[in-house]
Design goal:
The protein is an all-alpha fold. Helices cover 77% and strands 0% of the residues. It comes from Penicillium atrosanguineum.
Amino acid sequence: METDEAGLEERLKSALWMSIGQIVDEETMKLGVNATPQFIGALTEMVWTQIETVSQDLESFAKHAGRSTVNVTDVMLLARRNEGLDSILRAFVEQHKQPDETS
């Protein structure tokens, strides 16, 4: 079981590395600069660590509320101290609300 989890983590990190690499390539081409593979690797590790932290926080918020599933409320709670992110997420939630929702 541990081997399966380690394999899954490596596949996810590889996919993240590929995605970040593509984004970095697009942006460096626009700017006319170069990025080393080491930069992409370091950025990938930083993003992976952030994903781990965010996922643990979201899981804790849901668990504290007595739920086993993360929902929009948990995400909004996580974003509360980042005004820019909070406003973007609130606009997104409002835009995607179902017509019969009242909250």
